[in-house]
Design brief:
33% of the residues lie in helices and 14% in strands. By secondary structure, the chain is of the alpha/beta class.
């Protein structure tokens, strides 16, 4: 029987798969206090963590018995993969199962921001709607326009597939051209600066790394069209929030919609939240019932494989299995 720490409650159906192990779950739906986390993992064989938990040298030193770390997320920028690999600890994550749901959210945000839906709702709730006005809250079309996708991984490709329904042209930028995606969607590779200049709407789905920190900065925003819409569905620090505020306030771009922010969570008095042309939601990209169950299930499957000494099926640091010894 292995000892497992789960840092936040997960779907009971997924949690039930761990029956037969000694499982301790932090019972509150908020980030587990750091001190308690380090105390609890001291005698744990496995940890199922969230993207709000920092897995670093301190964590790994405290969890000296850990055989596996499993994260209920695709991105692992909160985890020091090199430190885990040095210690021979595989790290599980949950790719594929949230791709389509997150792409759906990218389109929901894009449509809402481009067509000024939140502003329309506020207009009605504020009692301002007196009669039909042909010039009221004019937004931007999606159909027939150019969509720019920054980062062409699984989610970027899913966003590109949906563009066909709007008869959109798709340009994308990635670390390398994705020929299979081009053949499937008709997307065309473009250099980053060219993409920003050509696109009517820009969706950011890139991975967050030190090299992509504030990828969308003041200079990038200045290259975009003054009517352009920016959507970030990836990680908050990809976008410089202060540069975005200035760009939205001064008309450098038309609108933005953010599922992720820097900082996260974003304070209620943050300058971005004062702008009517900036829609911010609380990191809901994969937040459908079915997808969150699938994520929890995959996270548990990764955990159980690691505890059994088997290869973790969805491993974020596969080189851990090719080390000498």
């Amino acid at each position: 029987m292995a000892r497992v720490v789960v840092t936040r409650p997960i779907n009971p159906r997924a949690a039930g798969l761990m029956e037969g192990h000694e499982v301790w779950t932090w019972p509150e739906n908020r980030t587990m206090p750091r001190g308690l986390l380090l105390e609890r993992i001291a005698d744990a064989d496995g940890a199922l963590v969230m993207l709000t938990d920092r897995v670093d040298d301190e964590f790994l030193e405290a969890g000296g018995r850990l055989a596996v770390v499993s994260q209920m997320a695709v991105g692992v920028d909160n985890i020091d993969l090199d430190a885990c690999t040095r210690r021979g600890i595989p790290v599980g994550h949950t790719p594929d199962v949230l791709t389509e749901t997150t792409a759906d959210m990218a389109w929901a945000l894009l449509a809402a921001a481009a067509r000024r839906i939140p502003e329309g709702r506020d207009y009605v709730l504020g009692g301002h709607w007196q009669e039909w006005d042909p010039d009221l809250l004019l937004g931007s079309d999606l159909w027939g326009t150019t969509l720019g996708i920054v980062g062409m991984g699984r989610i970027g490709a899913a966003v590109a597939r949906r563009a066909a329904g709007f008869s959109m042209r798709v340009v994308y930028n990635s670390r390398s051209p994705k020929h299979e995606v081009e053949e499937e969607t008709g997307a065309v590779y473009a250099e980053f600066e060219e993409l920003l200049a050509r696109a009517d709407h820009v969706v950011v789905t890139a991975a967050y790394t030190p090299e992509t920190h504030h990828l969308i900065d003041r200079a990038a925003l200045a290259r975009m069209k003054p009517t352009a819409t920016l959507v970030n569905i990836a990680r908050g620090p990809l976008v410089d929030p202060h540069a975005l505020h200035r760009a939205l306030q001064s008309g450098v771009i038309g609108a933005a919609a953010l599922d992720v922010t820097e900082p996260e969570p974003i304070p209620a008095d943050h300058e971005l939240l004062s702008l009517p042309n900036c829609l911010v939601i609380p990191h809901l990209g994969s937040a459908s019932r079915g997808t969150r169950l699938a994520m929890a299930t995959r996270a548990v499957e990764n955990l159980l494989a690691g505890l059994a000494g088997s290869q973790v099926p969805w491993c974020a640091n596969p080189s851990v299995y090719s080390q000498d010894g």
